[in-house]
Amino acid sequence: MVGLSLGEKHFIQGGIAQDIRSDGRKRLTYRPINVETGVIPQANGSARIRMGATDVISTVKAELGKPISLQPDKGKVSIYVDCSPTAAPMFEGRGGEELSTELSVALQRSLLGGKSGAGAGIDLSSLVVVEGKICWDLYIDCLVVCSDGNLLDALGAAIKAALSNTGIPRVQVAAGASGDEQPEVDISDEEFLQFDTSDIPVIVTLTKVGRHYIVDATTEEESQMSSAISISVNRKGHICGLNKRGGAGLDPSIVLDMISVAKHVSEQLMNKLDSEIAAAEAGEDES
Amino acid sequence: MEFVSPEGLRLDGRRPMEMRQIRAEIGAVAKADGSAVFEMGNTKVIAAVYGPREVQNRSQQINDQALVRCDYSMANFSTGDRMRKPKGDRRSTEISLVIRQTMEACILTHLMPRSQIDIFVQVLQADGGTRSACINAATLALADAGIPMRDLVTSCSSGYLNSTPLLDLNYVEDSAGGPDVTVGFLPKLDKVTLLQMDSKLPIDIFEKVMQLAIEGCKAIANYIREIMLENTKQLEYRRGI
Amino acid sequence: MAGKPGTTPTTYSPSPTTQKTRRPIFNENDVDWVRPDGRGFHQCRPAFFRTGAVNAASGSAYAEFGNTKVIVSVFGPRESKKAMMYSDIGRLNCSVSYTTFATPVRGQGSEHKDFSSMLHKSLEGAIILETFPKTTVDVFALVLESGGSDLPVVISCASLALADAGILMHDLVASVSLSCLGKNLVIDPILEEESYQDGALLITCMPSRYEVTQLTVTGEWSTPKINEGMQLCLDACSKLAKIMRSCLKEATSTSQE
Amino acid sequence: MGLPDAPGDLSSEVDVDAFRRLFPLRFYERHLTESIRPDGRPLGRARDTTIALGAVASAEGSALAKIGSTTMLAAIKMEVMTPSMDSPDEGCIAIDFHMPPICSPIVRPGRPAEIAPVVSKQLSDTYFKALTSYMCCCSSGMINLKELSLVSGKAAWMAYLDIYCLDADGALFDAALLSAVAAFSHLQIPAVSLNDDGKIVVVSEENGGKLEKDAVNKERMKLTLKSIPFSLTCVLHKNYILADPTAEEESIMETVVTVVLDSSSQLVSLYKPGGPVLAYTSAIQDCVALTRQRMKELQKILDEANSGMEVD
């Protein structure tokens, strides 16, 4: 998809080696991040993130559902990613399906933790209304509007922003509904309970080009990647998900080194994101 | 269900002749050759244009004019209830065809033979009148991509409920089962390129409703021309002329 | 005829095993917990490999880890599909599928749609693609029975099948997965342990080159725990590689007689 | 295919494999004249056959059948269904034949091989012919659907029989039928009982003692199999009949005849899908004779496998 001549390839690799990338950034600096929340009023929560030219929208919709029998005390969260053809002509029709599944699985792995629900960024037990009978099902839908590299980080940040913008309606359960048939429920549409997004992890992708690795790579830089590691780190510094892409093998010591660098970078990104989200929320209340 | 209150106000407080609030923004997708976002009330659509570029499969190549292709798709979160419709369902194929034919009529395709122009339209939020919003967004995106066109194509829908013609129906009025007229209009040449209507309507009332829709299209055309003028000033300023 | 169902009526599986596996509660100092099949925490299931399972294929292998049974066959290098563009390096095409009876409840195999791309990523680093330009090597895997940690078994078996097909590779690829249950790390988990694991770590590596080609982690891990987990898996991978090499040597020796 | 005889002398220097690839038909005819086949078998003999029962633990009944290098894995999973109105006390069987991409180079993932539906249609015909079309005299009919009923009108067994071809080297139908028959002979219907909310649940060993409402069938039951169908595929070429062809032989000589007899040697079905060679009655009779002889071998192999099963 990216037609680069040999000269351009050497230019990019040489630039990274000397810590000056083609758009002037250092190896570990991000492109300008712009966050807008509440872009889709019909959804319970939505956000649009622009990282340089990469532009993604993510929305959260809550619907009432029944918890699975194995975990009656937990709600359900499912994440879907859709690559819109506006991002690239090849995503037309079923073209973008493979990338979408790959991104959805990577996001699910980083944000939803293990099968037993432990270590999930989203506190599933706060989604239960009546244990074993009714719970909230969160559908997180993301749309890639324009893709210029580093999609996974942008989507992770967009989901974090969307969740902080989400309002789950308060639910009153009609008392006296015994037995196992569904108790009737009325949903009030005034007060909403906010979501605590403090321990939702942030995804940092380190792309290895030549002997160095960079953050927030553009499509051209990604085409030069030998291998890439996406690590999602939460506020406590624990690693909630790790996913190695790209072909070339990596020495385990390099993997550990990359993990420590990612943890360091994720703190800066986490603070930057929180400030941007707070600004967007404030901005949204005025307008 | 009473759509027009005795004082003449509609459900969302508009007058029968009043359009929803319009907002347009050019250049929303950086990587596309031309792109635009168009909002009519709650309906929000983003369009991107790639081209004129090399034709993907030789078999479709036309040697005396450009091949225009269009792809309409709705985001999962665009409608109220979360729908998981597969990509190629009938409704989106029909709308893709309508948009392609409308835009093909106004693009000067003979100037770009053996090339291909891709128009991709993505509905972010659907609240009635998606078809018209898509055509307006596509026009803006084509203009942003610098593709020669006979004239801008603007589109608007109008209906007839409680025996009063209503301009620019939203989702509730649209799904009320009344007639729904969608008009695609070339403002400078004063010609109608697209006319779609479903369910029954007597001829004279139809005349009034269509005329109302054409007025709507003219208003949109003025707004679009304003936006493009402002955008060109922006480009001029950036180029420092 | 009653036998031929027009529309297959909806059926449900009577076996209770799927509904009732309650999750044993792990408190911090839970030392006396024993694994359902009695293995030690750091002990893998006995591994059985055999190459040449399908002789319609240019290379194939059968692997059996406890209840997990997998067959992989390799075709190629052969000319790639018409639609493909010209490429001066070879192309790898992987596909993993489950039999309908592999999982305890019918039809759960379709949940693993991403296994094919994971297999592709693991093998991409090991195969020397430049040796068969313009052509494609197809790697197809079928899981006959799903007994837990199916993907690592598929990856190891696929690398054996590639070796059997004579595809040039930097090194064999071995893969092991690890579950985190409360505090203790349990290697090569079976289906039941996987269903209530807190976290999982999957590593695919080239043992003799000591390089990691694929690494996936889910659940919450602190860095020291990841380090310990990776070390455990890498040792298991090197042991597994020895078994795989001996299987290949046997195959060549028997075919020479 | 009229092959030019001019380069007759050429074949002497050309090495055998090249000759086999370049002129396959002439290579085979050279063998047929001495009534021997390239892999050393006489024309009438089938390849060696083995059956392994209980190959898959997660299915109630399973079997792996190998005829030469053609390998088939059949497995049956039992699920509960509400029987249809017109046959309240009968269960039913859903047969499906899969050709996964691993079994032969022709099969690509996504696009099913065109032979797969053909074989699965043939299989279900053979089964249902054997099962039900003789309902009137119900003499043959390998499985009596009534045995699959649980609670008349309310619950009955639905047996999902899935056959996977693991290695395709000719005579797919024979191996598939053999593996399916073996799977049925190995099938053990789990003991089930009706629990309180009307659902059928397997009586698991631990709480086997405490019997719920009415244990529908106490112990693990096996299906009684009457007249078991066996099949043999032959290839006709000029006036030769080759039993149990390999994939190569099938691709060169396209006329295939499949004869299915049941254990009381009644003709269940005969299947000849076209092909250039016209089969006169004499050729058909020879095929039936070959099949009768082959049936005894298969019967012996199946009984050995079953007896092996009873021991452990």
CATH topology of chain A: Ribosomal Protein S5, domain 2
The CATH architecture of chain D is: 2-Layer Sandwich
**SS content category of chain A:** alpha+beta
The radius of gyration over CA of chain A amounts to: 20 Å
Give me the CATH superfamily of chain A.
GHMP Kinase, N-terminal domain
Helix content of chain A: 25-40%
Q: Low-confidence parts of chain D, pLDDT < 50 over ≥5 residues?
A: 1-8, 130-140, 206-214
Instruction: Give the DSSP E fraction of chain D (strand runs of 2 or more residues).
Output: 25-35%
Order of helices and strands of chain D: HHHEEEEHEEHEEEEEHEEH
State the helix count of chain A. Answer: 5
Give the N-to-C terminal Cα separation of chain A. Answer: 40 Å
Major sheet size, sense and barrel closure of chain D: 6 strands, mixed
Portion of residues in beta strands of chain A equals: 25-35%
Helix content of chain D: 25-40%
Work out the oligomeric state of the chains in this entry.
heterotetramer
Total count of helical runs of at least 4 residues of chain D: 7
Number of strands of chain A: 12
Mean pLDDT of chain A: 83
CATH C-level label of chain A: Alpha Beta
Give the C-alpha Rg of chain D.
23 Å
Summarize the model shown:
Chain C: Its main location: cytoplasm. The complex is a heterotetramer of chains A (287), B (241), C (257) and D (312). Chain A has 287 residues and is an alpha+beta fold.
